[in-house]
Amino acid sequence: MQKFYTALLILIFGVISCQKNSHADRWEIVSESDFKDLPFTKLKGTPMEVNSAELNTTYSISVFDSLLIIEKLVATPTFIEILSLKTGKSIGSFGTLGGGPLEFPTFIRPKLMNSKKGYISITVPNDDGAYYEIPIASILNKNLNELKRLYQFGPKNTVDVVNIGNGKFAALSIGSEQRLVIVDTINSTIGGVFEYPFADEMGIPKSRLGLAFQGYLLQHPTQNRLAIFDEWSPTWDIIGFDKNDFWSIYSNHLRPPIVQDLSYQEGNVTSESIGVLLENQMAFFSPSATSEFIFTLYSGRNMAKWESASDTPNTVIVFDWSGQVVNKFELDRDVKCIAISKDNKSLYAFVETIDKNQIIKYDLPSIQADE
Fold it and tell me: 9: helix, coil or strand?
């Protein structure tokens, strides 16, 4: 583990600082400390009138037009709750636990789709990687038969999937030896692109690197671009693609996650596990994309000092789709996840406390997009 401590010390004691680049309000990040040094705007939020019980087990939220989509880890009683942004009232729900029609046998990962306006995708990792899509209008109209099962990714622990069109899907998978899994359903091929960062120096088998680089996959609403942001290390990538190829537009890999390989084998049983160490500074959580920007929570906190607050930060970093930092906000409280309106004017945050669950609305100042 000494190599990880050495890498961290270099970042802490280095004298490199963030530099403003040639674009207006674009900042070049060359070390973790640069995130702390960025100029920022403080934001004060306003709680929305929302039934606290409807937010139980929320792990992510999304905004679509005048709707707030609540995505839950556990069905309470449904996995998806749709609220009106105007009233805060529930106007639709979907996804119960069970083995019958229109039910799911285990936890699911709902996600507002950027490639299909007004659709939600659903991945069921423990159901052999089943992938579904359903129109939001169908949920609101209770026409649930429009739920379509489009693909089955298999037992590869696929954790984040986007439909990139032309019968192709891109996915992050904790069981993959490559950064991005590409599935072509038309030609029945499965492949991968891009190596994991720091693969050679981490000393972890390639089959377990996906466990160490757990993160989020985002898709540009109209352009052929993807973005990857990691939770355990400050690494992010912007990727371009067409019908035949994928290429890197921008990559910034500041350091590897500080982890320990906990895998073992007993007889015929093999257990693969990676544990993040307490001194590791957590990175990105709950990124939300619009046509111009990517907004993501940034932690910079470690579990040794902050415990569970290490993954509920109050800092929001804004990137453009070229991978550059363009803004930083400090919220007036720690939050679990965020969502952004498509006009970049409103940020919604989910706050979970012992006493109450809340949705907090923040009005955003104007952010200048690149010409």
Answer: helix
CB 152 within 8 A of CB 131: yes
Q: Which amino acid is at 192?
A: G
Tell me the longest C-alpha to C-alpha distance in the chain.
61
| Measured distance CA(338)–CA(297) in Å, rounded | 7
Looking only at the bridges linking them, the beta strands covering 215-219 and 189-193 are: unpaired
Euclidean distance between CA atoms 245 and 268, whole angstroms: 40
Backbone angles phi, psi at 352, to 5 degrees: -115, 120
Rounded Cα distance between 79 and 119, Å, is 15
Half-sphere exposure of 326 (CA within 13 A, CB side): 20
Q: Which residues, in sequence order, are CB contacts of 367 under 8 Å at separation 6+?
A: 292, 293, 318, 326, 327, 344
Structural contact between residues 41 and 329, judged by C-beta atoms closer than 8 angstroms: yes
**Using the 8-state DSSP alphabet, how is residue 279 labeled?**
T
Q: What would the two tokens of residue 243 be? A: 């019908």
Mean pLDDT of each 10-residue bin along the chain, 371 residues long: 34 43 74 94 96 92 96 92 95 92 86 92 88 95 91 80 94 91 90 94 91 95 97 97 94 96 86 92 97 97 93 96 97 97 96 92 88 53
Reduced to 3 states (helix: H, G, I; strand: E, B; else coil), residue 11 is: helix
How far from chain centre, in Å, is Cα 109?
Answer: 11
- Name 62's Cβ contacts closer than 8 Å, sequence gap at least 6: 68, 69, 71, 111, 112, 288, 339
Query: CB-based burial of residue 11 (10 Å sphere; 0-12 exposed, 13-18 middle, 19+ buried)?
Result: middle
**pTM for this predicted structure:** 0.91
Place of tokens 């009005």: 363
Rounded distance, CA 124 to CA 211, Å?
18
